[in-house]
Amino acid sequence: MAKLHVGRVDDSKFEVDLSSLTRHTIILGATGSGKTVLSKVVVEEAALQGIPTFAIDPKGDIGNLAFKSSSFDFSKWSGKEADALRLDRKEYAASLRKLYGDRLKEFGVSPDAPARFEKIPVRIFTPKSSAGLPVGISPDLAAPKDFSSLLASDVSSAADLLDLTSYSLLRLAGYAESDRSEITFVSAILENAWKAGQSLTVRDLMRRIENPPVSMIGSLHVSDVLSDNDRRKLVTKLNLLVSDPKLRSWSAAEPFNFSEMFKEPSINVLDLRNIQSEQEKHLFVELTLQQLFQWMIKQGSAQTLRYLLYFDEIAGYCPPVREPSSKKLLLLLIKQARAFGLGLMLASQNAVDLDYKVISNANVRFIGRLGAQRDIQRVSVGLELGSHAEKEIGRLQAGEFFCNIFEPRFQGVIKSRWPLTYHRGPLENSEIAELMADFKKDMPAAESVAQAVEVEPEQEEEPAPARQKARAKEEEEPAIPPSPHEAFMALEKRFEPKDLAAFIRLGSNVKEARAVSVEPSEIFHPVFEISASVFEKSYAKQTLDRVEELAAFDGTLVQLPAHKLTSQRLIPADVRKDAGKWKGEIEKRAAALKKELVAKFDVVMEDARKEHLAARTQGPKDKIANIDENISKLLDLLDAENEAQKQQEKLYKQLKKEKAKKSRLISVENKIDTKKHKIQTTKRKVEQLRTDREALVDKLRIIEIEEKEKFHDALTEVKSKSSFEIAGWLVETFYRASIAVNGREHHGDVRWSSWSGRGTWGRCSTCSVPLEDGSACSCGNLLCSNHLAYCKICLEPACNEHRAVCYICSSMFCSRHSVKCEVCGQSACSNHSGVCSICSRKACVNCSQKKGLIKRELVCRICSGR
User: Fold this and answer.
1) Which positions ≥6 away from 247 have C-beta within 8 Å?
2) DSSP H/E element including 303
3) Is the dihedral of CA 818, 821, 825, 828 positive or negative?
4) Nearest to residue 798, comparing CAs of 817, 768, 778, 816?
5) 416: pLDDT confidence band, cut at 50, 70 and 90?
6) Strand partners for 734
7) Coil vs helix vs strand at 549
8) Can you give the pLDDT at residue 260?
9) Residues ≥6 apart with Cβ < 8 Å to 403
10) What is the pLDDT of residues 202-213, one digit of tens each?
11) 327-340 CB burial, b ≥16 within 10 A, e <16
12) What pLDDT score was predicted for residue 453?
């Protein structure tokens, strides 16, 4: 059986069975305990055993698994750390080479392990950033493999798959989990398609919602499950997924291709740092895990470990009380992933920050050094460890872990082995870009007309004083700071030169329009990321965040249009400077965002006050309710005792009247005394309970006053902040061209946007004004609206060279419908002119006359002898 060499116990090698990871692993430890190092060691060992890993990295610590070298030469990456320690870079790199070599020999790591690990690809995916490999999210409605068989053999997995796919899709469209009718309806449509082996797109799904392929869902007609009106609303909301720019931005990059990622031993890291809001991070993780779950089911079941899912710092994504959107998927994977060969390894700083289902389902548990004794006690209780384990955990040093494995059984302290890769702090975006450069070469290149490469200028040794002053002016702080990881987004090219005739704006008289030569160029529009946050850390302990992305486009701020991530460009300094002109508008929007959040946070604070008050008053209220119940019972008992006493007194009087025996009278007297004693005791109990109740009521009043004071104090601690930066640039391609219109070429001022189709199409042949809209003469001359004239007969535009005004009717006519009289020399239209039947001269009606029996022959004045 394959084993993972993760450390040592005393002086012997400590190995974990590969099969143990199938039943999941949890690693707990405070900051500095060596938790991340142990996690990386497990990932390294899994990769060496041929197991691919998908790692979710909220903090950016896992990506330095890409710092690998068979000779431990980390000089390329250790320079900054050497500078921070004020050490010589070469000496520090040499010391690292010796340290890593010695430590790995000390732990008995195979000498060929570093060389084998160097061949394993490490990919880093960076959503919302072009630093690493771009990745997006989009609903996956592809039919699973043999879905009908899965439905027959494993109804639970098939139902979970349908429900998750439908729910995740509808969440993007704005629905909640409580909207079960819509979720059930979409699930039924997906089930119908998948049974037939049909994969759907969102547009396919919209068509099937409008015209359902099934008539019954369960025992009800489709209209009873979801009315026609609700179906129309559902289609409208789903349409946003393919039309709304904000939602489409998530799918601008391709989603994960797990088949490609897992086809060989590899490490695939999802770096979440570039997603700004926590809500969006949870959404991205949720949809990624849903895609992984769908893909996993399509691969079929497995009895051995095939893949590893590593989630670093999972606490915020699977807390014990709250229900973030990612928690449901994580719990589902913990429950079902084993059956499909997926093992989960989850790391957190403390067990109390995790849902108990995560801990209870972990077969392998590593507990590192914890911050305080109470944390150790909490972990000991939560993991059901004994007092011996508690003492062992209290003595742990950095890199040491208390290991508790259920199967095969093991319990003891282990020392984590040294990693094969260079371990240091989080990667910077520039380092990620350099590490991923080779992978990007293999990706389909983004369409661009001219790819500008940003090249750092060579540093001058000592610029002259005058040059220093000039540079100081150039390097003034920009009005709006740029993001350290600007994204570049290419607008779609919808108006290409080959389709010129379809969109050129020169009227309907264009018989031919083609591009003779084209020169592309690019215009950059700044994309501003505006973020606002309102928070309070001691009372409500809540934060409200809002992030908005706006693009400065066509003189106004708009939501991001449809785009695709593209390669980086060099932005000219004047373009960056012009972006600062938007600072006033951006500040107004940031203030408005903050104001909206403050209003919402008032509700959060009020809810927190109610929660605090409810939590503190719940105990006293329960006690008051218990007291009221006891008082009621005692009063009922008191009534019964009083009634019994009266009966005994009545009996005593009767016996005395009948002169009964003295012993009988004494017995009744004793019973009467006993009843009186019981009544007095009960009355004292009732009085005591009432006193206790009044004390509890007073306590409730005090609690309410205290909570009110705390609430008002907390209101003064509510903080808000807003910020904005240039998050990226929209890249709009413009074409400058020479075009031929109706056979005539035009060179100047022919320029249009490939995205909007707007531009200028040449100059007016009369006034030379550039034309955004105009008309074309049949000869190819262009005309603006001020110099545009239409022939009265054919209604087509004509330029000055090819039009004339009839001196008889004073109307304008094109050259095809006007002539110049060869007798008087004036222009006349075809209605007021003709050709002499004798000499064939062109003559106007004033210079000719009609002859013949029916007056049909035209004779000019010259031939008629007049």
Assistant:
1) 172, 240, 241
2) strand 302-311
3) negative
4) 778
5) very high
6) 521, 753
7) strand
8) 87
9) 14, 364, 365, 366, 367, 410, 411, 412, 413, 414
10) 888 888 888 888
11) bbbbebbbebbbbb
12) 32
Q: Are 365 and 405 in contact (CB under 8 A)?
A: yes
Q: What is the pTM of this model?
A: 0.51
Pairing of strands 220-221, 216-217: antiparallel
pLDDT of residue 370: 82
CA dihedral 137, 142, 146, 152 (to 10 degrees): 80
Q: Could you give the CA distance from residue 644 to residue 640 in angstroms, rounded to a whole number?
A: 6
Give me the percent of the chain exceeding a pLDDT of 90: 10
Q: Tell how many helices (H) and how many strands (E) occur in the chain.
A: 25, 32
Rg (CA), the chain: 42
Q: Are 255 and 137 in contact (CB under 8 A)?
A: yes
**Do 180 and 226 touch, CB atoms closer than 8 A?**
no
Q: State how far the alpha carbon of 563 is from the alpha carbons of 284, 487, 789, in Å.
A: 19, 11, 42
Q: Which residues contact 660 (CB under 8 A, 6 or more apart)?
A: none
* pLDDT tens by residue, 817-839: 888 888 888 888 988 888 888 88
∠ Cα 240 246 251 (to 5°): 85
One-letter identity of residue 536: E
- Do the beta carbons of residue 166 and residue 190 sit within 8 Å? yes
Say if strands 267-271 and 53-57 run parallel, antiparallel, or are unpaired.
parallel
Structure tokens at 76: 């390329």
The Cα–Cα gap between 337 and 25 comes to 13
How distant is the alpha carbon of residue 422 from its chain centre? 30
Most confident of 74-88, 113-127, 185-199: 113-127
The CA angle 485-490-493, to the nearest 5 degrees, is 180
Q: Is residue 450's pLDDT more than 70?
A: no
Left (φ > 0), alpha (ψ -120 to 50) or beta: where does 339 sit?
alpha
Taking only the tens place, the pLDDT of each residue in 604-631 is 888 888 988 898 889 989 999 999 999 9
Q: Could you give the percent of the chain with pLDDT greater than 70?
A: 92
Q: Give the residue ranges of DSSP H helices in 539-661.
A: 573-579, 583-657
Using CA atoms, how far apart are residues 843 and 218, in angstroms rounded to an integer?
Answer: 88
In the chain, what is the straight-line distance between the N-terminal and C-terminal CA atoms, in Å?
123
Which residue carries 């006359």 as its tokens? 849
CB proximity list for 148: less than 8 A, separation 6 or greater: 195
DSSP SS3 for 398: coil
Residue 152's alpha-carbon distances to 142, 149, 298, 625, 789, in angstroms, are 19, 5, 15, 53, 75
Nearest in space to 734 (alpha carbons), one of 757, 706, 763: 757
Label residue 461 by pLDDT band (50, 70, 90): very low
Run of H or E including 684? helix 662-716
Give the largest CA-CA distance in the chain.
177
Coil, strand or helix: which one is 455? Answer: coil
Instruction: Please enumerate in sequence order all residues whose Cβ is within 8 A of that of 566, keeping only pairs 6 or more positions apart, or say none.
Output: 130, 446, 447, 448, 488, 489, 490, 731
Contact predicate 747/741, CB 8 Å: no
Query: CA of 694: how far to CAs of 547, 627, 706, 792, in Å?
Result: 51, 11, 18, 102
| Residues contacting 54, CB < 8 A, separation 6+ | 258, 261, 262, 268, 270, 292, 307, 308, 309, 310
The answer to whether 136 touches 284, Cβ cutoff 8 Å, is no
Find the length of the chain: 866
What's at 498, amino acid-wise?
A: K
